[in-house]
Design brief:
The longest helix has 13 residues. It contains one helix and no strands. The chain has one domain. The protein starts with 5 loop residues before the first helix and ends in a 24-residue tail after the last helix. About 30% of the residues lie in helices and about 0% in strands. The protein is mainly α.
Length: about 40
């Protein structure tokens, strides 16, 4: 299993939220359910 440091995950998460436009094609606002598999630090 791969292990990621808390710093790595925090930086990756910051980058994901900076590029939210990439999610537009998913039309998340019109979805009934969304599964967030996440990658938390704890």
């Amino acid at each position: 299993m791969r292990r990621f440091s808390a710093d790595y995950l925090e930086e990756t998460r910051r980058g994901m939220w900076a590029e939210r436009g990439a999610l537009d094609a998913l039309e998340l606002g019109s979805r009934e359910r969304i599964l967030d598999v996440g990658c938390g630090t704890g």
